Amino acid sequence: KKLINQGMIQGVSEKIYVYGSKEGGQSFTNSVHLFDNSGKVVDIPFNNVRVLMSSDNYKKFIEKGGLYTYNPINIDIIHVKDKGTENSYLDIHSFLNDDKYNEFKNAVFVTNDGGFWFNGKYYNSNGEPIEKSGHSAFITSSEIEKMSKSKYNIVNPDDIIEKYGADTLRIYEMFLGPLEQSKPWDTNGIDGVFKFFRKTWRLFHDYNGKVNISGENPTKDELKTLHKTIKKIKHDIEHFSFNTSISAFMICVNELGNLKCNKKAILEPFTIILSPFAPHIAEELWKTLGNKPSVVNTKFPEFKEEYLAENTFEYPVSFNGKMRFKLELPVDMPKDDIEKAVLAEEKAQKYIAGKQVRKVIVVPKKIINVVV
Q: How far is C-alpha 78 from the chain's CA centre?
């Protein structure tokens, strides 16, 4: 027995720089410093104004060795576009419409394109108002930190469940990384998990949303996909490697989708192994298959090695050391028969024509090289 402590789910914080005290404070200045397009520092006179600066502009000022009175403050991530990336930027209009930032209603926003925003208008480095659409130049600074109300980087699980469902939240949390490690939450990545569930649903339904499940016997490829997934999930559950289980499920669904598999003999055991990870959709799919609830009362499927055994191997065939084509042959075929099959292959004729075959090198289940 062993105690497993789950790692902390961290959040992406976004910061901007404000003139004044470290806490944000009510600090005012009578001038605004910014860089023009040539990199020269420009001084714009103002009367008792608060100043906010984009993160890349602040870095420029630090490099110049001055204006250390700017300090970082955390802002609510709902006002940041492309958050968590190098190009994250503040939506100034959204920011100013948030009542908790009323203190910055009349502030100057120094952007990274040589100008600034003030009272809903954009000004160039000469302090002249000009027409400009958007405000993506106010770059923010992204950091991975503990989720905290004070850092404004909290993600409410109820909001995620309302939009995507509880199973998507469960699966995504497991998919973030190893159980014991701390890992950053990134809402942008949750769409991939949601798409996985849509693909899973389509295995059981046609494009009109009607149940479409076949009672036919599964093919060799379908059984191989299912049983390698059963093997992987069983191993991962016992080792608490839930993140790699999710990857295995995604690969399985993609392969079954490519095979256009809708066989009950495949989908039923798949639903059972999915149920510990996504119990809600699994219960629904279990009933869709014509079974009585509940899927949790069923036995975990047995992995059968025989379905993973390879009967053929795709040999890369080279001529004088240069690979020309691939040829699929039985794994138990004798070397002499492999040589005959290669030399008889139609694709080989153009590389052999008019030449004497001096040697055929066969490395079983690896390569074939014809020396001419």
A: 20
